[in-house]
Amino acid sequence: MTIDELRIEDPRPQRAWVTSRHDVPRAVALVLGSAQRIVRAMQRDLAPFELSTIAATEQIERFLLAHRSARVRLLVDDVAWLEAGAARLRQLQRFFPHAIEMRVASEDDAVGDDACLLADARHALLLTPTTQGLGDLWLNHEPHAQTWAALFDRRWEAAAHNLPVVPLGL
Questions:
Q1: Reduced 3-state DSSP string for the chain
Q2: pTM reported for the whole predicted model
Q3: Which domains occur in the chain, in start order?
Q4: Region 22-48: what's the mean pLDDT?
Q5: pLDDT tens track for 19-31
Q6: Which pLDDT score, from 0 to 100, does residue 170 have?
C-alpha cells in the first residue's frame, strides 16, 4: 500500500512504506492530521520530519487550537536543528508555551538511531532505513504505536527539564 492509498477514517490497521524523502511530508501530514490529544516525536535532531515547514506548523497550530488539552512533545539528542533550522516551530512554541514541550534526552538513554512521530499512540511514522525504503507509516495500529509511545515516555521522563521557550541571553 502507498501513502496516498491510506485513509485515516478507515478503522482497520494500515501500513505503507516511506520509500523516499518525497513521501515524508505526506506521511507527517497524515500523522499530524490524525492527532487528537498528543503528538510525540523523537529523533536525534528532528530535521528529517520537517516539522518547521509552513504546512507542518499550520497543522500543529490547528491541532493545538482544536483541543484544549492537546500537547506536542519533542525529544532530541542535539538541539542544533531546533535552534538554527526550526524558526517556525520555535515561533509556534512561543504562542503555545504550555502545549509544546521540547527536551534533550539523557545521555544514559539517548534517542540515538530511533526516529518516530506518534499521534495518540495509534498512528506511527517510523524512519528507520530498510531495504524497502526510509521507514514505514502505521495508521490505526495501537499495539505497534504503543510500543513506541512507551519507549518515548521512558526517555521523556529521564530527560532533563524543558528547553526554554525563548533562548536565554545576556
A1: CCHHHCCCCCCCCEEEEECCHHHHHHHHHHHHHHCCCEEEEECCCCHHHCCCCHHHHHHHHHHHHHCCCCEEEEEECCCHHHHHCCHHHHHHHHHCCCCEEEEECCHHHCCCCCCEEEECCCEEEECCCCCCCCEEEEECCHHHHHHHHHHHHHHHHHCCCCCCCCCCCC
A2: 0.92
A3: 15-158 (3.30.870.10)
A4: 95
A5: 989 999 999 999 9
A6: 46
